[in-house]
Amino acid sequence: MKHIDIIDIFEKNELIGTEATVCGWVRTSRDSKNMAFIELNDGTSLKHLQIVIDKAVISEIADFMKLGTSLKVVGEVVKSAVAADSVEINAKEITVLGECPQEYPLQKKRHTLEYLRTIPHLRVRTNTFNAVLRVRSVVSACIHEYFQQRRYVYIHTPLITASDCEGAGEMFKVTTIGYSNNYKSEEEYNADDFFGKRAALSVSGQLEGEVAAMAMGKIYTFGPSFRAEKSNTPRHVAEFWHVEPEVAFAELPDIIEIAEELIKHIINTVLEKCPEELKFFDAHFEKGLIEKLESVASNDFAVMTYTEAIDALLKADVKFQYPVEWGCDLMTEHERYISEVVCKRPVFLTDYPKEIKSFYMKQNADGKTVAATDLLVPGVGEIIGCSEREADLDKLLSAMEARGMSLAEYEHYISLRKFGSVPHSGFGLGLERIIMYVTGVQNIRDVILYPRTVGSIY
Ligand code: 4AD
């Protein structure tokens, strides 16, 4: 269908005075004595295009006015009568492409995000999702751009796996066998299944990413990861998009530099390419958002050890729900206190106790901690999990044995340490978490088209 995107009507001055065809959905409509007005949106712009109907030209307007109706409009592009810097269309001909009855749930009133979650197929037509999805698209593209410009190789790691990367995570089982109590043991059941052994959806592409980095030097993956933990929080989904660079010949300070540069690249790109969306989020979701992003992009992130963070938490004049002591896993309330109150900016927390981190992290000389870091940001908490990998075969084996892991299942991974092992590091950035940070949207369910969470799958 020949038509012009609404964003082009706004941006191309040369269209003023010409006849144009636009398509879209009615967002609002207003009828007065001689004139009627429709705000049309086609998804290309956060801003709606005003369609002006002179009833002397088009008299039967009732079908065009219902919210949600899809229209094709032919008319002249003119400067707006009220807003000097905008344009509108004086309609000559309007065609209904799809009717929309009164029961359309998105009527004029502002709906709560909770209600909108119950209509995921329609909430995409709200301003909030229009803005979220465009920011998400811009961020995704600029992540590829960042790595491609620096000659990283984009690797597609398997989504179905036989190993559990994090060593302790809950995974979604992949099986073709339905309910049956014919099997005497889990082993017998797995042996009869599609792969002849236990298989699951991958929680991370890291282990395969390391394989690729040991040949290609600098790689990244960008795809879905799956977590079956029953974490019913505003920051967890069971299916999220995961960005995982893996870099050979990089130690912890090198990968921290890369992570900070990537986050700043994302923020600068959103500031440059999504000004309208950011204004919207600043007005409706987080006052001062634009100022925050500008400041984060132009200042250094903080770096603090886990031990220093524990000291700060113990000294804090705050009653935390979960008690704090050296060796404990930090909860969101602790992470947020460190980034929001102590550092007041994004902070890399480094050198965690080895017992609370994964087997593959490089063991520090103190024998107690590992060369790992989480990037914590105000408002969200952890957005990046990062570490230098253990490159020493014996140390890796002892960490795996201490966790009771099956060495046979990780044969390939272990052998990377036999055949030309090198220092290397990588991290995982959750796409939804960085989208929350750059938009100020507080619930992860509202930054993804179809959130998958405990007990909920639309
Ligand atoms: O800290 P995580 O578990 O680290 C890993 O998976 C490493 N293998 C990454 C690596 O080194 N290549 O997860 C990394 C990030 C988290 O910081 C968070 O942003 C995101 O993935 N993430 C989730 N996002 C949404 N919902 C969940 N359930 C998430 N779990 C992790």
List descriptors.
458 residues, alpha+beta, OB fold (Dihydrolipoamide Acetyltransferase, E2P), BirA Bifunctional Protein, domain 2, 2 domains, 5-stranded mixed β-barrel, 15 strands, 31% helix, binds 4-amino-1,4-dioxobutan-2-aminium adenosine-5'-monophosphate
Report on the structure:
- The protein has 458 residues and is an alpha+beta fold.
- The chain folds into two domains: 6-104, OB fold (Dihydrolipoamide Acetyltransferase, E2P); 123-157 and 217-222 and 238-446, BirA Bifunctional Protein, domain 2.
- 31% of the residues lie in helices and 24% in strands.
- It contains 14 helices and 15 strands.
- It has an eight-stranded mixed beta sheet.
- A hairpin with a 7-residue loop joins strand 2 and strand 3 (49-54).
- Helix 4 crosses helix 8 (275-284) and helix 7 (252-273) packs across helix 9 (289-298).
- The longest helix is centred in the first third of the chain and has 23 residues, at 127-149.
- The protein is elongated, with a radius of gyration of 26 Å.
- The model has no long low-confidence stretch (mean pLDDT 96).
- 4-amino-1,4-dioxobutan-2-aminium adenosine-5'-monophosphate is lined by residues 165-166, 204, 206, 227, 236-237, 240, 242, 244, 382-387, 426-430, 432-433.
